[in-house]
Every structure is written in C-alpha cells, then in structure tokens.
Amino acid sequence: MCNYHITSLLGYLLFGALVRLHAGTRLNLVCLTPLVSLLQTPMKKTKELIGEAGATFVNAFTVTPLCCPSRSSILTGRYPHNHEVRNNSLSGNCSSVQWQQGPEALAFPVYLSKQKYQTFFGGKYLNQYGRKDAGDVSHVPPGWDQWNALVGNSQYYNYTLSVNGKAEQHGDSYEKDYLTDLILNRSLSFLDDRSPQHPFFIMLAPPAPHSPWTAAPQYQKEFSNVQAPRDGSFDKPGKVLHFTLNQNALPLRWQALLSVDDMVEKLVKKLDSIKELNNTYIFYTSDNGYHTGQFSLPIDKRQLYEFDIRIPLLVRGPGIKPNQTIKAPVLNIDLAPTFLDISGVNLSTANMDGQSFLAQMAPSLRNGTVRPFFLVEYTGEGNPTKDPTCPKLGPGVSQCFPDCVCEDAFNNTYACVRTLDGKQDLQYCEFADSESFVEVYNLTSDPHQLENIVKKVDPAILQAMNQRLIKLQSCVGDSCRNIK
Ligand SMILES: *[C@@H]1O[C@H](CO)[C@@H](O)[C@H](O)[C@H]1NC(C)=O
Ligand SMILES: *[C@@H]1O[C@H](CO)[C@@H](O)[C@H](O)[C@H]1NC(C)=O
Ligand SMILES: *[C@@H]1O[C@H](CO)[C@@H](O)[C@H](O)[C@H]1NC(C)=O
Ligand SMILES: *[C@@H]1O[C@H](CO)[C@@H](O)[C@H](O)[C@H]1NC(C)=O
Ligand SMILES: *[C@@H]1O[C@H](CO)[C@@H](O)[C@H](O)[C@H]1NC(C)=O
Ligand SMILES: *[C@@H]1O[C@H](CO)[C@@H](O)[C@H](O)[C@H]1NC(C)=O
Ligand SMILES: *[C@@H]1O[C@H](CO)[C@@H](O)[C@H](O)[C@H]1NC(C)=O
Ligand SMILES: *[C@@H]1O[C@H](CO)[C@@H](O)[C@H](O)[C@H]1NC(C)=O
Ligand SMILES: *[C@@H]1O[C@H](CO)[C@@H](O)[C@H](O)[C@H]1NC(C)=O
Ligand SMILES: *[C@@H]1O[C@H](CO)[C@@H](O)[C@H](O)[C@H]1NC(C)=O
Prior knowledge:
Number of helices: 12
Number of strands: 21
Strand content: 15-25%
Radius of gyration: 21 Å
Bound molecules: 2-acetamido-2-deoxy-beta-D-glucopyranose
CATH architecture of the largest domain: 3-Layer(aba) Sandwich
Distance between the termini: 37 Å
Oligomer: single chain
Cofactor: Ca(2+)
Shape: globular
CATH superfamily of the largest domain: Alkaline Phosphatase, subunit A
Keywords: Calcium, Glycoprotein, Hydrolase, Lysosome, Metal-binding, Signal
Subcellular location: Lysosome
CATH class of the largest domain: Alpha Beta
GO biological process, one term: glycosaminoglycan metabolic process
Family: Belongs to the sulfatase family.
C-alpha cells in the first residue's frame, strides 16, 4: 500500500528556496509533497497562501500512478524506464541497493548541495526506506544535510525515523509524536539554525492523507457530512469489476489533511518572520491521484485514468504573478529540473528526462515551450501465489481487498502517450497483456473517459500515436522532450 491520493489536487509537500536567479539574490526553495488532497475543500489556507499567491497548474500529471516509482521520478527527474524503479517492493528497486548506487546518487538534492544549498528532508521517503537488507536506517541519501525520514510506509504514530542515520522510535502522544507536526517543527528549527549566507531547500513529505488516515485529535469530527465526489465515471461498472465503495475514506483523508494545511500556514508565517518569504519558492504537489468509486473501482490508484494520474501543483515565488491559472501540461519529472534551474544548475549537465517549467510560471525570468507529447507508464503488481482469502482468484493479481475485487495484476502493465494543448486532448494506451489491449480517449469530448474510441478513430492517428509511444518508451534526456 502506498500513498493515497484523491483526484487531481494532491499533496506530498516539497518546499524549497531557490538561488541565484538574479545576481546578488539568493532564493530559497520549499517543496511540500503531502500525499493527496482535493484542494478545493479541506486545504483552504494552502489554496490561499500558495495558489492565490502564485500559480495553480490545472494540468499536472504523474508519469506513473504508484507511490515508490512516482517518488523516484520526483527525485531524479526521470521516467520509470530510466530510473528502473518498477513497483513498491525491494525487488522492484524501491529504495534498493541498485537504486542507491545508481539513480539516487544523481537525484536533485546532490546538485542542490553542490550549489551550497542547506537541505532538509522530513517525512515519508520511499516505501522500503530503512530496511535492514537495503542499508538500514544508517543509509542517508547523498545531498541531504538534515535527514528525518520515516522507515517504511505511511504511519502517523508508533513509527521509527532515521534521524541523520540513527533510529529514533516514536509512540503515540499527539504532542510529542504526530508525524505531520513533528516534521514541521523540525523544519522550523532548521530555519532558525540555518546559515544566512546560503540558500536552503526543505522537502516536507507528510504521509497525510495516506491511510491509515489518522487525524489530529482536534480534527477528528470534521467533514462528517462529506461524501466521495460523484463525477462522470462514479459507479459506472468497468469491464471486470463489481461495485464496492469505501465511503469512509474521503472524510478521514480530509481530516488528516487539515494538519497539512496548518503546516503550510506555519511555514509561510515563519518564512515571513525571518524575512525570507519573498526569496522563497514554495511548491505543493503529490505523488499520484486516487479513486473512490470511479468505474466502480474501490479505492486505490495504479490506473491510467485521469483520477489517478492527475496531481495538484501550486507554486509561489519570485517572478510568479499572483492568482494565475496555468494550463500548460507539466509532469512530476519536471520538478527536479525546475529546482535545478532555479538554483542555477546548467540543465544540460544533468541529463534529466523532464524540463524546467520556470518559463511557464515566470515568463519574465525564462523563455521556453512545453513538450507536445508525454508518457505515462506503469508496471502492474501481482502476487506470485494465490491469495488464500480469495480462493476463486488465480495468482498474478493484487490489491484484492476488501472484496476480492482486484485493482492490479501483472498484466495491468501499460504505457500511454498523451497530448494536451489548446487544440486536442488525446490519450493513447497500450497494455502488455495477452490481448495487447489498446485504449484511446478523446478527453475534449469525453472528459470522464467513458468511451474507448479505438475502433472509431482515424487509423492514421492510431499509427502516429503508436510510433510516438515506441519512441517515448525508450527516450532518455533530450529525446523525451523532442517527440514530434
Ligand atoms: C533495478 O535497477 C538496476 C539498475 O539500477 C537495473 O539493472 C535492474 O534491472 C532494475 N530491476 C528491475 C526489476 O527493473
Ligand atoms: C502504539 O503502540 C502501542 C503499544 O503497542 C499501542 O498500545 C497503541 O495502541 C499504538 N497506537 C496507535 C495509534 O496505533
Ligand atoms: C510542535 O510544536 C508545537 C509548538 O511548539 C507543540 O505544541 C507541538 O506539541 C509540537 N508537536 C510535535 C509532534 O513535536
Ligand atoms: C526581498 O526583500 C528584501 C528586503 O525587503 C530585498 O532586499 C530583496 O531584494 C527582496 N528579494 C526579492 C527576490 O525580491
Ligand atoms: C483570485 O482569483 C479568484 C477568481 O478569479 C478570485 O475570486 C480571488 O479573489 C482572487 N484572489 C486574490 C488573492 O486575488
Ligand atoms: C551548459 O552545459 C553545456 C554542456 O556542457 C554547454 O555546452 C553549455 O554552454 C552550458 N551552458 C551554459 C549557459 O553555461
Ligand atoms: C525571451 O525571448 C524574448 C524574444 O526573443 C527576449 O526579448 C527576452 O529577453 C527573453 N526573456 C528571457 C527571460 O530570456
Ligand atoms: C516488483 O517487481 C519485481 C521485478 O520485476 C517483481 O519480481 C515483483 O514480483 C514485483 N512485485 C510485485 C508486488 O508485483
Ligand atoms: C491477466 O492476468 C490474469 C491473472 O493472471 C488472467 O486471468 C487474465 O486472463 C489476464 N488477462 C489478459 C487479457 O491477459
Ligand atoms: C475530439 O473531440 C473534439 C470535440 O468533439 C473534436 O473536435 C476532435 O476532432 C476529436 N478528436 C479526435 C481525434 O477524434
């Protein structure tokens, strides 16, 4: 189980400050990446303090809708076929030794550290982080000066943190241990202790609103009347799935997000009080979307549909005009190049697949165009053996809770090419299953993806999309941005 995100606006927080955009100015970066959030409701302060003070990207996507591969893309600026993190298991490279020796050594904090950034990490890192067979808690990824990382997957209490390589056990006292508040408090101390000579980068990655959705005591009664959103695909049966829905999940997630909203407010206040707010870029995003009943799928991510691949992205900072809505599509692999761009790294030395979106949000600082086509790729997860609680199902499937309705399988492996501009909004996907299944959606006429138009669309369009997909699936660096 990984990070749960709802629909489009998520939060796995990253904060930072950027440097050296203008001679003589130092810019800081704050990146907030909480797991998910429907920004429109529970995150009022975040919307005001980041979105209305800066830019709201309405077409932000993850290049893979699963936590560990997506987080690995955020860290490296690479598509999964280049960082080679396939799933949430150690055997799929989630925080594995090969990951540590390869992609992690080239992740963005390494570059920021070379630019003399003081760096802080707090929260959930990668699902398998801290395992004994993968370096234990003593493995501190390069580039981080202050490291407060959760061992394993999401928890709010009773967790272990690696604090600069030493294990620190926590219990379940709200005042002492609630993880969202604890990482905020430590980031505030980091700001007090920083050297004013150099810029800083803070990444806060609260597990909220991932399950187990533990809210702070003062928020446990909120949102009792809220239901999962009934959008166009809600409760429309998909091909193989019957209707089940966990109505409880949404209010609980929203409750857990209220502490993230407080986190944003406290950080912004702190930056203001130390006179760094006008020098700091603040990013708010998440690692994947989430569904609650769409196509009658229970609760999860991992699918190619909008509700799982769209993520929230709000950014404020120098050169970004307040209250802008930006339609240009941006990807989670673009975060790392954007951080490096702001910090003054020559991007052609980093060979990342993504591209900086500084030009889209601050045209007074940079010129640049967006790429016309991008890739979303996913490797299905499965269990090699039969699940004893679901005796009717064979091996090869997974995420079959709570009712033996499976949301994933080894053959739920797919790759999609997407184009999204003023003229067209088209998604073309191929599955690696025994049928080589193809799904094509015209999002302009069918925003809820109710009709697969593969049999209706002009074959020349299918052929062109297939060719682009082949190129994107093996692209590296520049070639990922230059598909025609
Ligand atoms: C894990 O990553 C290494 C390189 O970092 C790669 O050689 C290996 O094939 C990857 N494993 C999987 C399952 O993709
Ligand atoms: C934390 O662990 C203690 C001891 O095992 C247990 O009693 C308590 O219920 C746990 N708290 C939470 C919130 O899981
Ligand atoms: C965080 O700091 C606040 C203010 O000092 C304090 O009330 C709270 O208990 C702290 N929480 C944690 C988990 O450290
Ligand atoms: C931020 O404000 C300070 C003090 O008013 C000023 O010196 C600095 O140039 C400002 N920075 C930016 C990026 O505008
Ligand atoms: C931002 O724009 C919205 C919609 O146009 C408007 O309602 C709101 O007042 C604006 N906020 C600010 C801070 O300007
Ligand atoms: C960035 O690096 C590339 C490759 O090393 C070099 O050709 C280019 O001149 C550099 N650009 C700047 C602005 O320094
Ligand atoms: C963007 O391009 C225009 C036209 O080529 C140029 O005048 C302007 O200075 C450029 N802006 C930046 C920030 O590079
Ligand atoms: C993760 O990927 C590895 C390598 O492809 C595979 O052996 C393993 O079964 C996958 N894990 C799951 C849960 O699918
Ligand atoms: C997908 O895998 C499942 C479980 O192994 C199998 O029952 C099903 O036939 C496969 N479907 C396709 C289209 O390959
Ligand atoms: C998608 O739908 C729009 C609006 O109906 C239409 O103009 C466009 O031609 C369609 N595109 C394709 C590829 O079918």
